[in-house]
């Protein structure tokens, strides 16, 4: 600043030239990652690298893998086949846990442990598939409505409002009852819960996309000539996924619980099929006398929901580079 | 700043009105924001045209229309003779290779969930014909070096860089397709003064290296003077004065330019005593309902009857060497220094 008015100049500050054109000190090397300059990194490869080092992710994956193995090969865990009516004995109803029957027996004298293991399949299939369907349908429509705006957005938003106006259990009851007997009851439960569940994901995705859309990097991508698909899936999706993941993982538990409610009302999974929801509904009548037949499937249900919430949490954090 | 006379950008009578609508279901237009209202200028290869004006005068809208991010209401933007405002689809995409942009805010103009390599490499993914897949990473690293960043930082995310470094990333992205024109929309106004200088110097170096033409939009007059060959002064969607940087700064002819220049801070205490201060009364009128005739007349101390009736055109007026849009244009050195 020693010579702010160069000779001949009209006195406008030209301090710019006095500052050397140097690069500021580089940001500190980030910890925990070893990305070399030779290997290309992207959001998803970095997220995967990051996830493998998160204890929460590892624990949740181990629990989910065990639950999945349990759903597909329940006989690995239980020597008793609860679908065989001869394993039940009414005279032993509500028996306390013993060496042969770890979780005791239920109201009909069936082995609670075996039923819990065999019930995992229906509950998890319903929970996971419904979550996937609602997230895909709601997310896709949400991103399109948020990005396109205008008539598309108005139309989609009004349609979701119609679905929101239907009380969800009543609506699911209606759908499941109407088509009862014409299709597999588990398939019906998934369809009924999906039809009523997607608007929630839609709203959250749409709101997140509208927020992301107004940012400059989207304008910059358009200026580069990026098409709608690239803007939606490379720019908007990664920046609006976080709230959707949170809601989807919480919904998973809600869907398993909703399946229980539908079963209780007589339109969901029906005996002799087994599901956790059904077991909880059955055990509820005699809860004060024999709480365990309700407690065990409820614990498994909570554990499943917890595992998926932990997984969702870990994935969401891994997709945010600022948290690394 | 070698300026050849080869013309690469021709803007003629550019108009952009944003409709004002009323009603929820049945929208009816009740007016229009006249953001850009009849702007014409040329740009030569390797030249810098600075555009100054206060907030809301239409500078950024002009940039958006030039970049074909907004369709103009009327007028043409010809790049090498072809109108980008009328181009569609594949032709528009090809034309975008020739005109790129550096944005104002380096904190929001980079996708926080993409690595620097992905951000600078994106132009190559969109315009696959520019660089074969195997070369792209090397090209991105070269670009990082050109803008003064460490090529080893290619796998980092934007939040790991400072504001000035991020703006360099934005510049590298703009350079990737080797355009002839770069529209800089307030590229330094979000940065600290010392960092501003670095970025301006970088832009000047790149201009010499690649013979770039800049449209440099800013509200900081000293920054514009430093980098520009020619300067256009905008008021309420129109150019009020257009000329070489020395003409505009030393011999401003339009009262608005004079008022604008009198507001530039002078760091020299002696110079500060000498210069005069022109303080404008009131706020700029609404661009939805601009005054009749000359748009500046409501705040002008020279305003007469004719100013309300007849719109002054942007032309060379007697006694001045460059174009101005004032019935009573006369040169007047506001700063009185040198």
From TrEMBL, chain A:
Q: Which GO terms describe its biological process?
A: transmembrane transport
Q: Which is an annotated Pfam family here?
A: BPD_transp_1
Q: Which residues form a coiled coil?
A: none
Which chain regions cross the lipid bilayer? 56-76, 124-147, 159-179, 185-205, 240-269, 294-315
GO CC terms, sorted: plasma membrane
- InterPro entries in UniProt: BP-dependent_transpt_permease, MetI-like, MetI-like_sf, OppC_N
| Record's protein name | Peptide ABC transporter permease
Automatic annotation (TrEMBL), chain B:
Give an example GO biological process.
Answer: peptide transport
Q: Taking every annotated instance into account, which residue ranges of this chain make up the domain ABC transporter?
A: 9-261
Q: Which CDD domains match?
A: ABC_NikE_OppD_transporters
Xref: SUPFAM superfamilies: P-loop containing nucleoside triphosphate hydrolases
Q: Which keywords does this chain's UniProt record carry?
A: ATP-binding, Nucleotide-binding, Transport
The protein's superkingdom reads Bacteria
Q: One short Pfam family name for this protein?
A: oligo_HPY
The UniProt record lists the keyword Cell membrane: no
Molecular functions (GO terms): ATP binding; ATP hydrolysis activity
**Protein family:** Belongs to the ABC transporter superfamily.
This protein's name: Peptide ABC transporter ATP-binding protein
Q: Which organism is it from?
A: [Actinomadura] parvosata subsp. kistnae
């Amino acid at each position: 600043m020693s010579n702010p008015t160069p000779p001949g100049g009209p006195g406008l500050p030209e301090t710019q030239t006095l500052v050397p054109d140097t690069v500021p000190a580089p940001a500190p090397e980030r910890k925990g990652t070893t990305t070399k300059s030779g290997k290309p990194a992207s959001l998803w490869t970095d997220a995967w690298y990051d996830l493998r080092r998160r204890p929460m992710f590892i624990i949740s994956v181990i629990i989910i893998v065990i639950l999945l193995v349990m759903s597909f090969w329940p006989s690995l865990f239980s020597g008793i086949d609860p679908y065989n009516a001869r394993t039940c004995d009414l005279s032993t109803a509500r028996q306390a846990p013993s060496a042969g029957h770890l979780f005791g027996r239920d109201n009909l004298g069936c082995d609670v442990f075996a039923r819990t293991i065999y019930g995992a399949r229906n509950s998890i299939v319903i929970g996971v598939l419904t979550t996937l369907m609602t997230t895909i349908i709601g997310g896709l429509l949400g991103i399109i409505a948020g990005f396109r705006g205008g008539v598309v957005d108005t139309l989609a938003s009004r349609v979701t409002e119609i679905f929101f106006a239907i009380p969800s259990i009543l609506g699911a009851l209606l759908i499941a009852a109407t088509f009862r007997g014409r299709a597999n009851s588990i398939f019906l439960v998934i369809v009924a819960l999906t039809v009523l569940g997607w608007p929630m994901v839609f709203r959250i995705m749409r709101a997140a996309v509208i927020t992301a859309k107004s940012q400059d990097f989207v304008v910059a991508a358009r200026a580069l000539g990026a098409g709608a698909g690239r803007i939606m899936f490379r720019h908007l999706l990664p920046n609006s996924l976080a709230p959707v993941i949170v809601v989807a993982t919480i919904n998973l538990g809600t869907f398993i619980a909703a399946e229980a409610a539908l079963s209780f009302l007589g339109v969901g999974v029906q005996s002799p099929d087994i599901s956790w929801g059904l077991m909880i509904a059955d055990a509820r009548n005699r809860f004060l006398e024999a709480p365990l037949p309700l407690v065990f499937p409820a614990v498994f249900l909570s554990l499943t929901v917890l595992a998926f919430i932990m997984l969702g949490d870990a994935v969401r954090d891994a997709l945010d580079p600022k948290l690394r | 700043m070698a300026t050849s006379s080869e013309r690469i950008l021709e803007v003629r009578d550019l108009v952009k009105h944003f409709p004002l609508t009323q009603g929820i279901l049945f929208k009816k237009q009740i007016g229009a924001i006249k953001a850009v209202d009849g702007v014409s200028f040329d740009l030569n290869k390797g030249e810098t045209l600075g555009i100054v004006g206060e907030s809301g005068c239409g500078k950024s809208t002009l940039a958006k229309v030039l970049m074909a991010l907004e369709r103009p209401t009327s007028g043409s933007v010809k790049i090498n003779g072809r109108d980008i405002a009328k181009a569609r689809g594949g032709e528009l995409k090809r034309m975008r290779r020739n005109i790129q942009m550096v944005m104002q805010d380096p904190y929001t103009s980079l996708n926080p969930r993409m690595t620097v390599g992905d951000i600078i490499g994106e132009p190559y993914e969109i315009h696959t014909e520019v660089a074969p897949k195997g070369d792209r990473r090397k090209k991105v690293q070269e670009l990082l070096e050109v803008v003064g960043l460490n090529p080893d930082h290619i796998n980092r995310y934007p939040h790991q860089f400072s504001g000035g470094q991020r703006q360099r990333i934005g510049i590298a992205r703009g350079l990737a397709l080797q355009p002839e024109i770069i529209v800089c929309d307030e590229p330094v106004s979000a940065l600290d003064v010392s960092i501003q200088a670095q970025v301006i110097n970088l832009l000047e170096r790149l201009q010499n290296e690649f013979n770039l033409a800049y449209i440099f939009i800013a509200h900081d007059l000293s920054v514009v003077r430093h980098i520009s060959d020619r300067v256009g002064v905008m008021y309420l969607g129109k150019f009020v004065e257009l000329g070489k940087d020395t003409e505009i700064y030393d011999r401003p002819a339009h009262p608005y330019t004079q008022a604008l220049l009198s507001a530039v801070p002078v760091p020299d205490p002696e110079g500060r005593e000498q210069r005069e201060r022109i303080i404008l009364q009131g706020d700029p009128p609404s661009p939805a309902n601009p005054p009749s005739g000359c748009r500046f007349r409501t705040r002008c101390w020279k305003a007469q009857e004719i100013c309300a009736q007849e719109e002054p055109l942007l032309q060379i007026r007697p006694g001045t060497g460059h174009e101005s849009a004032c019935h009573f244009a006369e040169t007047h050195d506001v700063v009185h220094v040198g």
